[in-house]
Write the structure tokens for this entry.
Amino acid sequence: MAHAKLFIGRRIRELRETSKATQSAFAERLGISTSYLNQIENNQRPVSATVLLALAEKFNVDIALFGGSDADRLLSALSEALADPVFAGFSSGLQELKLVAQNAPAFAHALIACHQAYRRNSEQLASFDDQLIRTNFLAEPTPYEEVRDFFHFVDNYVEGLDQAAEHLASALGPLDRDAGTAFANHLDKHHQVRVSQAAKDEGVIRRFDALTRVLYLNPYSPQSTRNFQMAFQIAALEQRAEIEAIIERARFRTAEAGEICRIGLQNYFAGALMLPYSPFLTAAKELRHDLLLLALRFGASLEQVAHRLSTLQRPGLKGVPVFFARIDRAGNITKRHSAAKLQFARYGAACPLWNAHQSFEAPGRMICQLAETPDGVRYLSIATEVIKTAGGFGSPHRRYAIALGCEISYAGDFVYADRLDFTNRSAFEPIGVSCRICERMDCIQRAVPPLKSTIAVDHNRRGQLPYTIC
């Protein structure tokens, strides 16, 4: 499969302007002509490997920073928005959309935000009909969606918190032996916070009493959950200034979004403290991303390990670019991030052919799948069901699936690929992103027609679907 051409003109121009260099001087240092540099900056020509190496050598630039994951995420969201029938009179090719995502990302984000507002108003109108109370609130994304997009577009990596967590983890010593004791001692010594058990009938996972300086934890929660909640409390006590600065820079529309983001950032620090960046990245490579072994080594849960793998995006020290998602039994994606080319749909359910759904039928097993999306990109996908409870037989259980995967070129880094046949084309199952925007016309699991297609009904003939897609 041919490698995608790299059009990063805007980033090259930003680097040149930061260096306060003219095009002529910048081109001379790279060893190329001024006209070639001008074409690169205007995305008329892709960047060659020679130019990338010159950037690394002459300007001390990490080549990994020029990866396409940011543009892929934005391009995916933009393509999905433009697939809406409201844009039926406008035709945009893939190359044209790429140019917009690469050269005018602010415009692309604005268009996506407008489409979100349009969809929300449409859904509210459909729900309330004539009784709709028209307020400005209905034209804005929900706070939860706003925070979800914040993490999505920062590549699920928060530099300041990640570095601080790794520094603290190093100071606390090896956490793979007894992280819980280390966290509890740190809270007691540095914050005069005592860790205790919550009442058995209280029904909480964590409760902090600021007056008595006691952190109550559910005694029936798994040790990995109790460790995470102690790390969360450390974040709340020690990272307040950094978290407030991040929220301020994000410029959320509402205070509620800021509060939700604050929880998300404290969760981020907690995960980074339990699974410090460099030791975890080293272990992931050594154990070939075996989720169970990583969980056992660091005293974490499978979900914590899978989620952490999706955050390994530190410049100059990146892990394998993976996608990660958590899916409930109704097909809702409650967590999602992708550093790979595959991007999850912002609206609608995930593809029913994806192995994440199969994991509910095989509790306790790792379901492996070779998959191919309509654009021809192939992936390794691993999914398993997770069950959480904080009590005994009569307590409610939360059941959901976690899915992790990578493009097939990285599959050799995963132990799950050892028994799979990459050479057999028929081994790759055709999957899509969402029925709303999937281009496959002959899928037997299709739930709804693609948004930009028309359908024809032959009353004298019935195939897998009651219609054909034109």
